[in-house]
Amino acid sequence: MLGNGVRTGRCVPYYHGASKTCEVSGWCPVEDGASVSQFLGKMAPNFTILIKNSIHYPKFQFSKGNIEMRKDGYLKHCLFDEASHLYCPIFRLGFIVERAGENFTELARTGGVIGVIINWDCDLDLPASNCNPRYSFRRLDPKHTPASSGYNFRFAKYYKINGSTTRTLIKAYGIRIDVIVHGQAGKFSLIPTIINLATALTSIGVGSFLCDWILLTFMNKNKVYSHKKFDKMVDTPDRGAGPGPRASEPPQQDSTLTDPRGLAQL
């Protein structure tokens, strides 16, 4: 049978009966998950988390943060609200779990991983006040996985009692918050616009048409270009032909072979 420790190589009597078993050096008693302490499911939803974030787009020399720069102690008495307090990134733990579509009481028992996603999509042709963060929340760990669902970890505290090494093993369940930041910024520029437009026109065959039209219409030597590009073909009538239609000559036939009635001559 399997043991919860390292085998010493000694064969010792079993704890009941006359059989023997391999000795195992391990911690007693063995963890069975029966001892469960009272969780903080009632208090923890009101815990608050400050998420401080800033972005920088070096190409456009643009930087911005998600905290409003005020000196009146604004952050001491505000909570996040998407409509009225967008730049107060202080979130209640219960608010984050609720926005992720989870039940806090159930999540506190098994633990879990919640992702706070901050998205910065900015049009830098507009004022900086229009570049604002957008928050979304979702659960990241698979909660329906039978093996090791939720989020938990173990740690121990070691000490000695009467010369014997003793430990207290703690299995902790918790809610881990992962902050994910992504975004993009853009600004109008004339040169990339011209390059992209020319590439698009060339791909559909309009570029050569526009070049020919510009050269034939606006250039001073458009006649020279036209002469080099186009070949003129003139349809001239045959010499000696009258104004009326020409009569075609009948084909010559060998009179020795056939007569006008189509019968063979012997």
UniProtKB/TrEMBL annotation:
<keyword id="KW-1133">Transmembrane helix</keyword>
<keyword id="KW-0813">Transport</keyword>
<dbReference type="InterPro" id="IPR053792">
    <property type="entry name" value="P2X_RECEPTOR_CS"/>
</dbReference>
<keyword id="KW-0472">Membrane</keyword>
<keyword id="KW-0406">Ion transport</keyword>
<dbReference type="GO" id="GO:0004931">
    <property type="term" value="F:extracellularly ATP-gated monoatomic cation channel activity"/>
</dbReference>
<keyword id="KW-0407">Ion channel</keyword>
<protein>
    <submittedName>
        <fullName>p2X purinoceptor 2</fullName>
    </submittedName>
</protein>
<keyword id="KW-1003">Cell membrane</keyword>
<dbReference type="GO" id="GO:0070588">
    <property type="term" value="P:calcium ion transmembrane transport"/>
</dbReference>
<dbReference type="GO" id="GO:0005886">
    <property type="term" value="C:plasma membrane"/>
</dbReference>
<feature type="transmembrane region" description="Helical">
    <location>
        <begin position="197"/>
        <end position="219"/>
    </location>
</feature>
<keyword id="KW-0325">Glycoprotein</keyword>
<dbReference type="GO" id="GO:0001614">
    <property type="term" value="F:purinergic nucleotide receptor activity"/>
</dbReference>
<dbReference type="Pfam" id="PF00864">
    <property type="entry name" value="P2X_receptor"/>
</dbReference>
<dbReference type="GO" id="GO:0033198">
    <property type="term" value="P:response to ATP"/>
</dbReference>
<dbReference type="GO" id="GO:0043235">
    <property type="term" value="C:receptor complex"/>
</dbReference>
<keyword id="KW-0812">Transmembrane</keyword>
<comment type="similarity">
    <text>Belongs to the P2X receptor family.</text>
</comment>
<dbReference type="InterPro" id="IPR003045">
    <property type="entry name" value="P2X2_purnocptor"/>
</dbReference>
<dbReference type="InterPro" id="IPR001429">
    <property type="entry name" value="P2X_purnocptor"/>
</dbReference>
<keyword id="KW-1015">Disulfide bond</keyword>
<dbReference type="GO" id="GO:0005524">
    <property type="term" value="F:ATP binding"/>
</dbReference>
<dbReference type="InterPro" id="IPR059116">
    <property type="entry name" value="P2X_receptor"/>
</dbReference>
<dbReference type="InterPro" id="IPR027309">
    <property type="entry name" value="P2X_extracellular_dom_sf"/>
</dbReference>
<keyword id="KW-1071">Ligand-gated ion channel</keyword>
<feature type="region of interest" description="Disordered">
    <location>
        <begin position="235"/>
        <end position="266"/>
    </location>
</feature>
<dbReference type="GO" id="GO:0098794">
    <property type="term" value="C:postsynapse"/>
</dbReference>
